[in-house]
From TrEMBL:
<dbReference type="InterPro" id="IPR057352">
    <property type="entry name" value="TPR_TmcB/C"/>
</dbReference>
<protein>
    <recommendedName>
        <fullName>TmcB/TmcC TPR repeats domain-containing protein</fullName>
    </recommendedName>
</protein>
<feature type="domain" description="TmcB/TmcC TPR repeats">
    <location>
        <begin position="79"/>
        <end position="181"/>
    </location>
</feature>
<feature type="region of interest" description="Disordered">
    <location>
        <begin position="186"/>
        <end position="239"/>
    </location>
</feature>
<dbReference type="Pfam" id="PF25474">
    <property type="entry name" value="TPR_TmcB"/>
</dbReference>
Amino acid sequence: LKRALTSTGQDSGLWLTIAIFHMSFTKNRHKMGEALRSCKQNIPSMIERWMVYALLHDLEKVNAAASASKNGQSGGEGVAFRSKIARAQRAHDFAKAYLSQAYLFLSREHLDLERIMTYLDKAIISELEAHAIFDELMKEHGTTSVQLLRAYGSLLRDIYRDDDSALAMFNEANAIEEELAANSGHGRSAMAGDRASVGQHSQGGISVGRDKNKGKRRKKSGSAVLGQASKQENLIPGL
C-alpha cells in the first residue's frame, strides 16, 4: 500500500482500500477517517461513494461508543452529549453543503446574486449553530473527548480554513488516545503488581500521581486550543 501510495496518491480506490485495511487490521480509526476523506477528495465512483458513506457511518457509531466509555459518562449525560454533538455535526454538514452551492453558482457566467446570498446566509446560520454547540461542549469535555476535538477541528478546517487550530486539535486528540492506551496497559500491570506485594501497590500509587500530572498538562493544552478556536467566531465561513 505504501509503494502504491507513493506512485499514485490520487486514486480513490486506493484510498478506500487503505481505509478498509485500517478498519480490519490496524484498528486505527483516525487513519481510517483520513483515508476516507482522501477518497472523497479524489472523485470516487458511485459505488465508492456509497462505501465511503457506509464506512463513515460505522466509524461514527464506534467513535460515539468509545467516547462515551472513555469519558465515563452516565446514561443521561452520555445521551445529552451524543445528541448535542450530532446536532453540531449536522449543522456543520449543512454549512458545507450551502457553501458548495454558493461556490457553484459563483462559478457560472451569469450570477444569480439573490440565490448566492441566500446560500451564504444559510451557511452562516448553520455554522454559528455548530460553533455555539461545539464551544459549549468544549468547556465541559474538550480536554477529554477525542470525538469532540476531531469534530470541532473539522469545522475549523472545512468552514474557516483555520488549518493551524484544526491541526492542534487533531494532535491533541491523538495525544489523548495514546495516553489512554498507555494508561490502560499500565493499569493492568499495576493491578497485577497489587496482588503480588504492598510495595508494588505503592509504586502504582506513584504512577497514578504521574497520570494526574499528565491530565493537568492535557487540560492546560486543551484550554490553549480552545482559546485559539474562539478567535474564529467573527469570520465569514469559507471566505
